[in-house]
Amino acid sequence: MSSTKYILGIFDDPDDLMHGIDKLQKNSVPIYDVYTPMPIHGIDAKLGIKDSRLGYAAFMFGCMGGTTIFTLVYYFLVHDWPMDIGGKNFFAIPDFIPVTFEWTVLFASYGMAFTFFFATHLFPGRAPRVMDLRATNDKFVIAIDAKGNIPHEDINTILKEAGASEVKHNDRKYVSYE
Amino acid sequence: MASHSESIIREPLITGNNITYGQITDDILRPVENMPSKAWWIGFTVASLGALLWVVSISYTFWYGIGSWGLNKTVGWAWDITGFVWWVGIGHAGTLISAVLLLFRQNWRNSINRSAEAMTIFAVICAATYIGAHMGRPWMALYSLPLPNQYGSLWVNFNSPLIWDVFAISTYFSVSLVFWYTGLLPDMASIRDRATGLRRRIYSVASFGWTGSVKTWQRFETVSLILAGLSTPLVLSVHTIVSMDFATSLEPGWHTTIFPPYFVAGAIFSGFAMVQTLLLVTRKVLGLENYITMFHIESMNKIILVTGSVVGVAYITEFFIAYYSGGEYEQYTFLNRFIGPYWWAACMMYGCNVLMTQMMWSKKVRTNIPISWVLSIIVNIGMWFERFVIIVTSLHRDYIPSSWAMFYPTWVDVGVFVGSIGIFFTMFLLFIRVMPSVAIAEVKLLLKSASEQAKKKQIAEGHLDPAHVEFYKDNLIKFDSIDHSEYEKA
């Protein structure tokens, strides 16, 4: 049995990469992941990645922020220490709108960004799980789990035919751990 | 998808022949991966000296108190708030470019958004230093937060625009920071994967372990879009609230309902001018002419022209309303701008902001780099004077003639202001050394659709309306980064 863990199809051009994904899928070769230096629209649909739900997270965090500050201001200025300003209403809702808006935006932004970092495992100090170092520069990489996907030669041919400039057989899953 | 070709009549966003994805990375990372040039060192030395002046002036202020500034009991707010509003205004362009232009799908933002966002963050830092500084005792800044305290919890006054401002500026800074840093992650990963040793470790931590997998990219784009949607009303709210610091008072010259839109337009105006000032130099020094093209420069000049004209209309409205209101104090304030002792400040304000920018109606001016650069500086100066006129000229003569006074800045006032410019440039110069000054991934997106070489290929393939091709070629004449001889032959 070969020691290959992942087969990488390395492309120079995003259109060839899309072609490669189609070819692999036509031949029922499951794709592990695709690494690109920039967002390529359409891959997510091909690989069956569902639409992001981060928008809902942002909305909920926004509601939380707005409610939090509005409740706090209500407590401060209406309940705990009402200030008589020319006999005006203590519960001056229009005056509370600016800070409510700011905290809605603040909570929505930070809540969503941190949900994104959490859900995609991004945090300072995380070891980068990179399969090919050029995937953040100028190469477009399709990774195929070698286990169970045999014969490897067929996959090589499919990738080459689709326009891969290089096919690599990695013995280690991630090269960046060295 | 990447292969969609763009209409030929649109001007290219990336110029040059044989640009590859690798070349884009190389070009943009050159200042990060190599030793700095002589020009950088000269700039950095001058900027650091400015920053040093700031440290000295601020230390002096904190040691001797606010009395070391030229304030008096009539003009109790002068260069400090002028500098604050000026810097916050400058910050607005970064968010405008990164958020509003993203929502409008303006692809030309891709190569200028990163440095403009960085500029936003540094400008807001400079603005925030004034908030701390004008308190004289900076630890008192704590009392601007709603914290339980020894007065039996007398809370901050949420009816006051000054407290709204604390919330607006801090939120604006925080959201800009997260927007900017999230966008930086993929590009930091590009540096990481090309580096070795300690450098690699540092960028590895900084890039949060970014890999560029399909799912991260998809989520990344969602996050960018929603952050843009959130930042857009945020940026409008920030300068609206800054303007309310003045507009909710009863001071003639401040008590004006037009202030919020007027301030927001002015902020965009001055911000784009500062972006222009920085980018025209950055593009030259870092050799980014192929990515920040004449189209970008002209587009920014057009925005400066539009917002400058909006500001001009606001000025005229102010004068008309002063006349129409029939209020003698209001009328005097506006008359005093021209016939009072600060007439020269008003001349600087109206001359620089309205008259000079009207020159940009001419395409020759818009596409001339030295003139654009000078005009951008003139706008920066004009916008500083706008705030000075609104603040000092209004305050120095209001209701009671017996308390009329003049404001004379001390060296500390000047030092804090000039020093803050030094702080700003020091941070900006450090930024272009350690982080990619252009969003690499976003520029790569344009290569196959909006680059000069892609358009050339389209022309070579034929199938295009010759009139459109002619139109396209005519548009290329203004570009300084294109080899025009190729087009003359064809």
TrEMBL record, chain A:
Q: Which residues cross the membrane?
A: 54-76, 96-119
| InterPro entries per the UniProt record, alphabetical | ActD (IPR021776)
Q: Does the keyword Transmembrane apply?
A: yes
Mind listing the UniProt keywords for this protein, alphabetically?
Membrane, Transmembrane, Transmembrane helix
Can you tell which superkingdom this protein's organism belongs to? Answer: Bacteria
Q: Kindly name one Pfam family recorded for this protein.
A: ActD
| Name used for this protein in its record | Uncharacterized protein
UniProtKB/TrEMBL annotation, chain B:
Q: Does Nucleus show up as a keyword for this record? A: no
As given in the record, the signal peptide range reads none
From the record, give the transmembrane residue ranges: 39-64, 84-104, 116-136, 162-184, 223-242, 262-282, 303-322, 342-361, 373-394, 414-432
Record keywords: Cell membrane, Membrane, Transmembrane, Transmembrane helix
List the GO cellular component terms: plasma membrane
Where is this protein found? Cell membrane
Topology in the lipid bilayer is annotated as: Multi-pass membrane protein
Q: What is its main location?
A: membrane
InterPro entries linked:
NrfD-like
Q: Which Pfam families match?
A: NrfD
- What family classification does the UniProt entry report for this protein? Belongs to the NrfD family.
Q: What is the protein name stated in its UniProt record? A: Molybdopterin-containing oxidoreductase family membrane subunit
Species of the source: Mucilaginibacter lappiensis
